[in-house]
Specification:
The structure is a homodimer of 339-residue chains. In chain A, 29% of the residues lie in helices and 26% in strands. Chain A has 339 residues and is of the alpha+beta class. The first copy, chain A, has 2 domains: 146 residues, 2-Layer Sandwich (60s Ribosomal Protein L30, Chain: A); 160 residues, PurM-like C-terminal domain (Phosphoribosyl-aminoimidazole Synthetase, Chain A, domain 2, Alpha-Beta Complex), CATH 3.90.650.10. In chain A, helix 2 runs parallel beside helix 6. The first copy, chain A, is globular, with a radius of gyration of 20 Å. The two termini of chain A are 36 Å apart. Chains A and B meet through helix 1, strand 2, strand 3, helix 2 and strand 4 of A and helix 1, strand 2, strand 3, helix 2 and strand 4 of B.
Chain lengths: 339, 339
């Protein structure tokens, strides 16, 4: 497969007609987008590197494509935005372009990307391709979305007294990854993308949009680096402290299987769950689920005071202990950090 | 240097206040932009890989940063757009993050990016960082710009009878790269960025904006892959053929030094000049320079006819020969291809 055929494959994965905000898709120097009137444009980029964010002998290519797009979509969901277009920069090793098994990998990758993109009506509108200078796959995904002017959910709006909520369940992605690593063999086929929180995370697009539209959140972000790390981002941006009720944490069934200690660790520090973590006034009557996704109150925000921990975990017996950020470290010893 | 310090360095290179279209820069899940009313948003992404687009022992880091940004800016210039924000995804080897010489590399890279960004009032508004899984530097740049609705210059507007123009001079970047490769030693310091068409190309932002504003072009793109390759893109997108007058080609003084044969080859097929190649009605009175950049008429568009070459080169003696696309091949045997 030459790069021109690769570009043709990308073009097939692109359906600009799917989204009327795309005036011009792949094929010119730039793509052209027309955001709706009175909207703001939101932009996020996420780099995905082989052996750092995925392993070729562990992750099916459909999962790699899905997760690339899911990471960017989740950043839009965290601000309540509606996605309009994705851009993909992709560098592939010469061996993948040359070999038949490599072509199957590429097809699987775009299938994963495409199915998730269709679900959220976000086509590929452009990008760049190159041959990778090493035997490593590199992908960078850019997502553009829109939100009504001045309404995007930021990290900085939480106030003391606000309640702390999380969507869905925590620790599932870390638990599934840990099971995959223990198996040490590649899963070639999986029957469905449901129930695979690590391989096929579900970005909470509709829930994020509903939080914005129904004015339910004072601050929001997504749990990409782990609850303890992301909550610390929220606390710092908002200038508040937080308390978490351990008993209230919605722990994913896959994490529960690990036993209570490891389950708690996965829920607090496991990353890549792509759930939404948000603040809302304590008096606001929060629905039990939003856009079909359960919402759980897991704690509250309190005033920030020097000498007091930024985050506190309250055990079922009432014991308070400081909670340190300890997010997910992917496959390396260095923690992933965000902008 | 840890990744947090790296992000701090990126943040310092970011000056959202430089551009009032940026409502929220680095620090949340997404950046927020407010394009002017009645405008369209243009997006382009360009991946830059060590050993493919640059070599660490050949290119000063300032040049690598400059060229990353210049590639994206030039795509905006080609459509007549005004840049509003850049996003950078950067993966650096652990050794660069750990070593003092690596920190100097990072500082130089951001200096190059920053100086060009300041010149065109386009700050870094976000991005992503990661440790590279190999000893290779990887960068992906995303540029967002705006243009008045429906006015962006596309590749598809050239008509038979239109004249063909190019800005500046051709072949300079290929000639300078060839000189650098012949030297086989790294240039550690250079006194000025002027006169280095390969190391510090000048994207034609003001000229592109003027072409759009003054309605001077029917089609436009930038010469990133070489005149012969990019003209072929323009011909295909517009459904026309083209004739080039060899004697009219504005050959860069650095290319002239190579002798007539190699100079012509550099002008026709050398890539990365980042000049603008555009079509305009033959009767339109074209200024000799636009926004301070010389503009040269180098040929014309004719109807496309089967059996006739898409591009023809007319030698000074009047001899016609078919011109095949033969763009720049970077450091590999595989031609760079675009969307």
């Amino acid at each position: 497969m030459g790069e021109l055929q690769l570009i043709e494959q990308i073009r097939r994965a692109s359906h600009p007609s799917q989204n009327k905000a795309i005036t011009l898709g792949i094929g010119d120097d730039c793509a052209i987008l027309r955001p709706p009137p009175n909207s703001e444009v939101l932009v996020t980029t996420d780099i995905t590197l082989e052996n750092r964010h995925f392993r070729r002998n562990l992750h099916p290519p459909e999962s790699v494509g899905h997760r690339c797009l899911a990471r960017g979509l989740s950043d839009l969901a965290a601000m309540g935005a509606t996605p309009i277009a994705a851009f993909l920069s992709l560098a592939l090793p010469g061996s993948i372009l040359a070999e038949k098994s490599g072509q199957a990998w590429i097809t699987g990758f775009f299938k994963g990307l495409h199915i998730l993109g269709e679900l959220h009506r976000v086509p590929l509108a452009g990008g760049d391709t190159s041959e990778s200078p090493a035997n490593l796959i590199l992908a960078d995904i850019v997502l553009l979305g829109t939100a009504p002017k001045g309404k995007a959910l930021r990290r900085s709006g939480a106030r003391p007294g606000d309640a702390l909520y999380v969507t869905g369940q925590l620790g599932g992605a870390a638990a599934e990854l840990s099971a995959l690593l223990a198996r040490r063999r590649r899963i070639v086929r999986i029957a469905t993308i449901d129930g695979h929180p690590h391989l096929f995370p579900e970005p909470r697009m509709d829930t994020g949009e509903a939080l914005l539209r129904r004015d339910l959140a004072t601050a929001c972000l997504d749990v990409s680096d782990g609850l303890s790390t992301d909550l610390a981002h929220l606390c710092r941006a908002s200038g508040v402290s937080a308390e978490i009720e351990q008993a209230a944490l919605p722990i994913h069934p896959l994490a529960r299987k690990l036993g209570p200690h490891r389950a708690l660790k996965a829920a607090l520090h496991g990353g890549e769950d792509y759930e939404l973590l948000f603040a809302a006034p304590a008096k606001l009557r929060m629905p039990g689920s939003i856009a079909g996704v359960p919402v759980t109150r897991i704690g509250r925000f309190i005033p920030k005071r020097s000498g007091r921990p930024m985050m506190t975990l309250i055990a079922p017996d009432g014991n308070h202990s400081p909670l340190e950020p300890g997010g997910w470290e992917h496959f390396s010893t260095r923690a992933k950090t965000r902008r």
